Amino acid sequence: MIARMEKLFIVGSKRLAPTVLFTLQQVGVVQVDSVPRDRLGEYRLEPEREAQLKRYEAVRSAAVHAANLLKLELDAGVEPFQGDLEDAEAASSSMEQSAATLIEKRERLTDERQLVDQYAEAVESLAAAVQGLDGSSRLSVIPFVVERRADLEALGPELASALNDRFLLAQGPVGDKLVAVIITLKSDAGAARGLLHRVGLAELPRPGEYAGLDLRTMAARLTMRSTLIPQEMAGIAEELRRLAEEAAKLLPGIWTRASDEANRLQTLKALAFGRYGMALFGWVPARMRTRVVESLSQFGDELLSAFEPAEEHEAPERVPVTMENPQWIKPFEPLISFLITPRYDSLDPTWISAILFPLWFGMIVGDVGYGLVFLGIAWYLSALKSRNQELRLNFLKLRLKPSALGQMVQIMKPLIMWTVLFGLLYGEFFGNLLTQLKVFGTRAEPGMIPVLIPRTNPVATAALLIMVSIIFGIIQVLHGFILKAQLARRQKEPKAFWEACGYFGGVMALIIFSYGFMSEKYPFWLLVPMLMGGALFIVGMIRAAAPLMIVELPTQCGHILSYIRLYSVGLASAILADLSTDIGLAFLGVGGVPGLIVGGLVGLLLALLIHAILILLLTMSHVLQPLRLIWVEFFTKFDFYAFNGRPYRPFKLIGSQKS
């Protein structure tokens, strides 16, 4: 549910402002807002504080830049740096400059290594070919590398035409390329280079220290550097490692301290000030009010504070929103905040997601074996969290911190429970493995444990499971319209209220009509609610002044049929799981006793491989299918996405040590 918020007003002496802000920052539950300055002036930092703010911001920026260069995480849960501002400036600036210098050297060496790898052999060959002519005062030597022989063939006639045979063009193979050189008079060198570019060729690059060197000297230097560069790279890597170790101890604390100080000085500007007094306005969750009162009691009569409940009908878009849910619901809050922050006068549907998402996931997957695989994954993630390690999936470029892993484990628990329970109902363990082994059984194939709903037998169970899926859809779609009507009354939106009532009646009338049509009966107990629903739809359409509702009504009913995916997607995955197991079992007994052993091993490995591929490929789909039903078919019924709220961002210390 959305937490009830209260407005906080604080009035006191101007000199108390920094101390009050520090106290509130320690408490960490007040979101400070700008005060309307109708009569009070805007606070302007004194020159000394303004300079201090800029210095702390520079320290924070330097710490972030150094951490990025050294690939370090700036963890907020560390003790803030205890030194003074000068020490923080010196440490952060030194690390930033050292890291930048080392990385610049590494990049230069990387470029030089590429030059050596690409051209060392070619330069050596060219140096042997020109025999020192590139040191002549009258001749120019233009070396280049050719990727395609056709380019070289096109260059010859161009040179002959432009230079009247005052040139020499030599070539030779080096590896899979051709190296070539143009020797001409210095007065013709510019024209030769122009022709070279015209046919799409480029002169041999000689960057940095290699500029101006003759080919023989360049070849010798490249040979020498091919030995020295790896040693220099290793030295820089070692220096970066040591610097990163040192920075990991200091930078997070420096960043934390600088962020806390800069945030506090910046927040001073949100206060309103008179000549001698100051005023502060903020928001506090109602359950946190006592903490604020206790923290401000130290100021006694020098400070006046007052609280006022935030009313839903008074600018609800301004009220910060935070959630207050039981522990079993809280892990599912990101499924809502990922989309939007609900507005203060809206509702928090997290509890619905916490119930239906795991239930429908289990209904789709419904396999005891897969549930045990998910249990193993959850156990592994939980072990990582307990060791305070993050999960890195480099091929997906994904990194999950221990806190995120803990949240994932909490979400996985009900998913695993429902997956196993539905697996027992369906009689599925890695498909039909236990059915083949006569552990699970049906009327046609008896076993030790009777299967209640063999979903891979559509003749026997399709009607039941489709009906269950449709009932889920009916309940959720109608519930969505009920929520819309309730929200419309709360928000004093009569058109939205009547639109919701109209759709509720219209959808219910069409559902009853469809049932009667399928059963070929329209008894009085069905006819009356159907007519009442139709009448409610007409009244709602007229009162909402929305004639297009009659066009949208079939679409709203069609959303109910979308819930059949709970059965169809699950059936498709169950059939694939059965097929995977059948392929593995097919290798058993091929070729007598040796075939039984070899075939069993091959079949086991093949079945495990196919099941692993199915889990990898289908799990994401099985996650998205129930979420889609909640996010699209359900949330759109009560215009959830139309009421975007303001997230609650309390003014608090970043670090864990609140000193």
Give the structure's gist in a few sentences.
The protein has 659 residues and is α+β, with helices and mostly antiparallel strands. 59% of the residues lie in helices and 11% in strands. The protein folds into three domains: 160 residues, Alpha-Beta Plaits, CATH 3.30.70.2170; 117 residues, Alpha-Beta Plaits (2-Layer Sandwich); 296 residues, no CATH class.
Largest sheet descriptor: 6 strands, antiparallel
Percentage of residues assigned to helices: 55-70%
Please tell me how large the radius of gyration is: 37 Å
Low-confidence stretches: none
How many structural units, i.e. domains?
3
What is the number of helical segments per DSSP (H or I, 4+ residues)? 18
What is the count of β-strands?
Answer: 15
Beta-strand percentage range: 5-15%
Q: From the structure provided, what is the oligomeric state, counting identical versus distinct chains?
A: single chain
N- and C-termini, Cα separation: 33 Å
> What is the arithmetic mean of pLDDT?
86
Structural class, by secondary structure, is: alpha+beta
